[in-house]
């Protein structure tokens, strides 16, 4: 009796193992090359990492689910390139943990929205999109301008980013909290540190027009304004792939 | 280093296909093996039977 | 339900719950951010509430030894009811989300009620809350019946149901307050993910233990599908959720993957979640409940096996069709496209097998709305897989991607296939489990059927229309060679379709509420007849085995 049971038990486990093997070989064969894919990612020597304020803004973008309506991936199709700019390259999202390519365009693509509008436009738009685009179906995000940013543990964020492979220096990690507020205070002492660590081209300003505090809106706009601007590679090689689509 | 990537891609494209074909063949042989017909028919009927309680 | 546990199991349940409560309390006390504290409290309170439940039944007399001679169905009963609660909740949110796209001010200036937070509440609530609970509940039923064996113990199934719903609760409450990883269908943060792994392993071991006790030498094919569902979902979940938390006292983590690699991993996950959660699991349901309800064996058992292996090994390769024309290498895209086309074969084998089974029983389909739910589900399964394979072709995807066409495809599968097959299975199961000859009101089943079908059709047709219009407007050029429409123009064009979709969704939601009422009344009449609360009903209820014999009822 025991023997009989034993055999049956082995049988169902064997079956389970078979399912795992069959299913995972397919996945593995397809995915394995992608773990060496960084070898095929175009070099982008001018690429910089997100500043702490921009990273905080990115986290707000994630928290509010902006990705549910906005893609950040311009496909290599003619109409997309004409509408949104040069198509997205793999290099441009190499520091994005996780990527925010999106799968639905209820709103327009944002991969290259950085610099397209003024900060002020964004402030008005985020507070009530219908003030600038009367037909818009985008939600109003009034609470972002009310909420102060909580920077207390931002060094931990940069440390974790470092662990997953983003090239933040130890100095950047150590100064994360100061840099966070420094970037939104152009007149403050901390601003210089941000420029020194993240490059002269970094946007240093009071993004949300309220100099008294650093809000979530400051962070979000800092992030929006850098989208598509971390590297210039996409602009330097305008046509590498043949574009497809209607004429 | 590019060599490694190319190699993996090559492997995926060629052996992946063989793997798939072989597997498909195996499954078809198993399901259509004549002596397997009886147990399969029995299994298909088995759920229709009365099933008030577990078998002792 | 505590009365059914042996004294030792009661002790063990108590211990496990204390452990969970302690972990929750520790999270709440040490938590370094507010959100983490909230989740600690939710865990603590869920465990505490369940502890009271256990205590309240702790001193009941130990269960009858006779119990071991019956299938253990209380967890299935509970699972079905929980699934229906999730269904109504998540469809309500889904419809709210739908109205939001027509009238954006319906957020009322509250962060938790904004589109970006409600949408994942809808998707998680419906896929995991409704779909997951329905799969778990029916799998418990099916594996016991087809193995002719009882659950090995009374506690494990409850652990699975409690633990799984705690996971769903953490997930959904997290989006409301702003905890998310942003990975579609894998939004919950690291601690919830770890918790799900523990529960899922318990589930898998339980499943294997029932199979190991089986008195039937052959494992019925429905179990294969359920097993593939359990196993592959475990692999997908673990790989895609690899992440580094910023600390053990924070909710936030950063994904181990980035950029293209992350995109590929995410859609390998996303597509296979469709395959093994929304397809394999529900095919398991189909292969058991449809033949039972029709009273005829499956048309071809062999086809069901071929279909099984086809689905198991073709799906894994197809994920990249979510990333056509992106920065992903082209060869991976082509691979995904090819396999998506091949997927049509096992998919249609399954759909065809289901429909052929009904050949010769069409009069039953006409008279029995329960069976009709299953029949229409099989049709929509065939339809949405055909559509999927079509959309996977690169030039087609160039048009459909990013548009409402995808949403139409999703809901042809989700409403037409997943939800309908589940409702069919539940309407079959409820009378069997509560020992009734039939549902409280077959009329209301009929009403639900027509509401669900019309809701689905309205939804899907409006999204096909809006999606294709949207896609065409984005790529239309005028004579001077510039783009003819601005984005906002295409958005305005969507408005009437969004309203139509929301109305279709409302139909579907009302149908589900009617279903809840009907189920509730069935349970109540069972209770009144038995004169005892349903969970304590001994397995030999009022109806004789003859009456419960499935499928034979007209
Ligand atoms: C009352 C019925 C339902 C309504 C009104 C509804 C409504 C919606 C809406 C408005 C969206 C967002 C679409 C967008 O972003 O444009 C959505 C997304 C989604 N829904 Fe539903 N839904 C319903 C039922 C279901 C069911 C039963 C399921 C699954 C079993 C489901 C699965 C999904 C999924 C997976 C998505 C995400 C699609 C994507 O990202 O492409 N829905 N739903
Ligand atoms: C042969 C079977 C199928 C194939 C080849 C297939 C293919 C596809 C394709 C090409 C997309 C669009 C990807 C994009 O452009 O972003 C898609 C999206 C989707 N499909 Fe299917 N599909 C199949 C069956 C199903 C079924 C049965 C369901 C069940 C509900 C389903 C659920 C979904 C979901 C939820 C999405 C949206 C993912 C997202 O963007 O969030 N599919 N599918």
TrEMBL record, chain A:
<keyword id="KW-1133">Transmembrane helix</keyword>
<dbReference type="GO" id="GO:0009055">
    <property type="term" value="F:electron transfer activity"/>
</dbReference>
<keyword id="KW-0560">Oxidoreductase</keyword>
<dbReference type="InterPro" id="IPR009056">
    <property type="entry name" value="Cyt_c-like_dom"/>
</dbReference>
<keyword id="KW-0408">Iron</keyword>
<keyword id="KW-0472">Membrane</keyword>
<keyword id="KW-0812">Transmembrane</keyword>
<dbReference type="GO" id="GO:0016491">
    <property type="term" value="F:oxidoreductase activity"/>
</dbReference>
<feature type="domain" description="Cytochrome c">
    <location>
        <begin position="52"/>
        <end position="228"/>
    </location>
</feature>
<dbReference type="InterPro" id="IPR036909">
    <property type="entry name" value="Cyt_c-like_dom_sf"/>
</dbReference>
<dbReference type="InterPro" id="IPR003468">
    <property type="entry name" value="Cyt_c_oxidase_monohaem-su/FixO"/>
</dbReference>
<dbReference type="GO" id="GO:0020037">
    <property type="term" value="F:heme binding"/>
</dbReference>
<protein>
    <submittedName>
        <fullName>Cytochrome-c oxidase, cbb3-type subunit II</fullName>
        <ecNumber>1.9.3.1</ecNumber>
    </submittedName>
</protein>
<feature type="transmembrane region" description="Helical">
    <location>
        <begin position="12"/>
        <end position="35"/>
    </location>
</feature>
<dbReference type="GO" id="GO:0046872">
    <property type="term" value="F:metal ion binding"/>
</dbReference>
UniProtKB/TrEMBL annotation, chain B:
<dbReference type="Pfam" id="PF05545">
    <property type="entry name" value="FixQ"/>
</dbReference>
<keyword id="KW-0812">Transmembrane</keyword>
<protein>
    <submittedName>
        <fullName>CcoQ/FixQ family Cbb3-type cytochrome c oxidase assembly chaperone</fullName>
    </submittedName>
</protein>
<dbReference type="InterPro" id="IPR008621">
    <property type="entry name" value="Cbb3-typ_cyt_oxidase_comp"/>
</dbReference>
<feature type="transmembrane region" description="Helical">
    <location>
        <begin position="15"/>
        <end position="33"/>
    </location>
</feature>
<keyword id="KW-0472">Membrane</keyword>
<keyword id="KW-1133">Transmembrane helix</keyword>
TrEMBL record, chain C:
<comment type="pathway">
    <text>Energy metabolism; oxidative phosphorylation.</text>
</comment>
<feature type="transmembrane region" description="Helical">
    <location>
        <begin position="155"/>
        <end position="178"/>
    </location>
</feature>
<keyword id="KW-1133">Transmembrane helix</keyword>
<feature type="binding site">
    <location>
        <position position="321"/>
    </location>
    <ligand>
        <name>Cu cation</name>
    </ligand>
</feature>
<dbReference type="InterPro" id="IPR023615">
    <property type="entry name" value="Cyt_c_Oxase_su1_BS"/>
</dbReference>
<keyword id="KW-0472">Membrane</keyword>
<feature type="transmembrane region" description="Helical">
    <location>
        <begin position="12"/>
        <end position="30"/>
    </location>
</feature>
<keyword id="KW-0479">Metal-binding</keyword>
<dbReference type="InterPro" id="IPR000883">
    <property type="entry name" value="Cyt_C_Oxase_1"/>
</dbReference>
<keyword id="KW-0249">Electron transport</keyword>
<feature type="binding site">
    <location>
        <position position="271"/>
    </location>
    <ligand>
        <name>Cu cation</name>
    </ligand>
</feature>
<feature type="transmembrane region" description="Helical">
    <location>
        <begin position="446"/>
        <end position="464"/>
    </location>
</feature>
<dbReference type="InterPro" id="IPR036927">
    <property type="entry name" value="Cyt_c_oxase-like_su1_sf"/>
</dbReference>
<feature type="transmembrane region" description="Helical">
    <location>
        <begin position="80"/>
        <end position="101"/>
    </location>
</feature>
<feature type="transmembrane region" description="Helical">
    <location>
        <begin position="373"/>
        <end position="394"/>
    </location>
</feature>
């Amino acid at each position: 009796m025991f023997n009989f049971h034993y055999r049956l038990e082995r049988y169902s486990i064997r079956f389970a193992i078979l399912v795992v093997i069959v299913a995972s070989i397919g996945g593995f064969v397809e995915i394995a090359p992608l773990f060496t894919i960084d070898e095929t990612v175009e070099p982008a020597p001018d690429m910089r990492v997100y500043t702490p304020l921009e990273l905080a803004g990115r986290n707000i973008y994630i928290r509010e689910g902006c990705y549910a309506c906005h893609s950040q991936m311009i496909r290599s199709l003619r109409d997309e390139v004409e509408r949104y700019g040069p198509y997205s390259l793999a290099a441009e999202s190499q520091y994005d943990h996780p990527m925010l390519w999106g799968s639905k365009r209820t709103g327009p693509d944002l991969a290259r929205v950085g610099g397209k509008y003024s900060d002020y436009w964004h402030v008005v738009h985020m507070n009530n999109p219908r003030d600038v685009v009367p037909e818009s179906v985008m939600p109003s995000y009034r609470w972002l301008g009310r909420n102060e940013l909580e920077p207390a543990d931002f060094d931990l964020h940069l440390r974790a980013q470092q662990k997953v492979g983003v090239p933040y220096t130890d100095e950047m990690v150590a100064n994360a909290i100061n840099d966070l507020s420094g970037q939104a205070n152009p007149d403050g002492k901390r601003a210089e540190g941000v420029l020194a660590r993240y490059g002269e081209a970094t946007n240093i300003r009071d993004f949300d027009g309220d100099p008294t505090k650093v809000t979530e809106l400051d962070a979000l706009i800092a992030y929006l304004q850098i989208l598509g601007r971390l590297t210039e590679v996409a602009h330097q090689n305008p046509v590498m792939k043949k574009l497809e689509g209607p004429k | 280093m590019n060599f490694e990537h190319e190699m993996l891609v090559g492997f995926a494209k060629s052996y992946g296909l063989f793997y798939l074909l072989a597997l498909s063949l195996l499954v078809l042989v198993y399901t259509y093996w004549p002596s397997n017909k009886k147990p399969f028919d029995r299994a298909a009927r088995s759920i229709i039977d009365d099933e008030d309680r577990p078998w002792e | 339900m505590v009365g059914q546990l042996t004294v030792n199991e009661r002790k063990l349940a108590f211990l496990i719950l204390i452990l969970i409560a302690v972990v929750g309390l520790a999270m709440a006390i040490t938590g370094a951010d507010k959100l983490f504290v909230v989740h600690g409290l939710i865990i603590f309170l869920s465990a505490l509430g369940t502890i009271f439940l256990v205590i309240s039944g702790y001193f009941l007399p130990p269960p009858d030894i006779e119990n071991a001679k019956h299938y253990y169905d209380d967890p299935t009963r509970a699972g079905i009811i929980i699934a229906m609660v999730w269904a109504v909740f998540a469809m309500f949110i889904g419809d709210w989300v739908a109205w939001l796209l027509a009238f954006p001010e319906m957020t009322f200036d509250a962060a938790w009620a904004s589109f970006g937070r409600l949408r994942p509440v809808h998707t998680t609530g419906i896929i995991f809350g409704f779909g997951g609970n329905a799969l778990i509940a029916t799998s418990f039923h099916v594996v016991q019946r087809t193995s002719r064996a009882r659950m090995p113990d009374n506690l494990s199934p409850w652990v699975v149901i409690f633990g799984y719903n705690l996971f769903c609760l953490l997930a959904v409450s997290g989006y409301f307050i702003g905890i998310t990883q942003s990975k579609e269908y894998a939004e919950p943060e690291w601690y919830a993910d770890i918790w799900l792994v523990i529960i899922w392993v318990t589930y898998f071991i339980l499943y294997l233990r029932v199979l190991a006790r089986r008195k039937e030498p052959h494992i019925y094919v429905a179990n294969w599908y359920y097993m593939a569902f359990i196993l592959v979902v475990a692999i997908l979940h673990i790989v895609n959720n690899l992440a580094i938390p910023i600390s053990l006292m924070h909710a936030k983590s950063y994904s181990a993957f980035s950029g293209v690699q992350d995109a590929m991993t995410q859609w390998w996950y996303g597509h296979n979640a469709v395959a093994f959660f929304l397809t394999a699991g529900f095919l398991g349901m189909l292969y058991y409940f449809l033949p039972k309800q029709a009273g005829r064996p499956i048309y071809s058992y062999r086809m069901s096996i071929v279909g099984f292996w086809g689905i198991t090994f073709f799906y894994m390769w197809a994920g990249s069709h979510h990333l056509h024309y992106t920065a992903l290498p082209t060869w991976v895209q082509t691979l995904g496209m090819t396999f998506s086309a091949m997927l049509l074969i096992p998919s249609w084998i399954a759909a065809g097998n289901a429909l052929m089974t009904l050949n010769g029983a069409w009069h039953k389909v006409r008279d029995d709305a329960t069976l009709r739910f299953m029949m229409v589900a099989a049709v929509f399964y065939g339809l949405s897989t055909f559509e999927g394979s079509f959309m996977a072709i690169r030039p087609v995807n160039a048009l459909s991607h990013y548009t409402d066409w995808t949403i139409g495809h999703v809901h042809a599968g989700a409403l037409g296939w997943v939800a309908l097959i589940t409702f069919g299975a539940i309407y079959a199961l409820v009378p069997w489990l509560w020992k009734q000859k039939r549902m409280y009101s077959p009329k209301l089943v009929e009403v639900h059927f027509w509401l669900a079908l019309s809701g689905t059709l309205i939804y899907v047709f409006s999204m096909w229309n809006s999606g294709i219009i949207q896609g065409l407007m984005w790529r239309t050029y005028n004579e001077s060679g510039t783009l003819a429409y601005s984005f906002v123009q295409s958005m305005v064009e969507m408005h009437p379709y969004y309203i139509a979709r929301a109305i279709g969704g409302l139909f579907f939601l009302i149908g589900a509420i009617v279903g809840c009422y009907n189920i509730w009344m069935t349970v109540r009449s069972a209770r009144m007849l038995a004169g005892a609360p349903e969970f304590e009903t001994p397995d030999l209820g009022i109806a004789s085995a003859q009456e419960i014999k499935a499928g034979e009822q007209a």
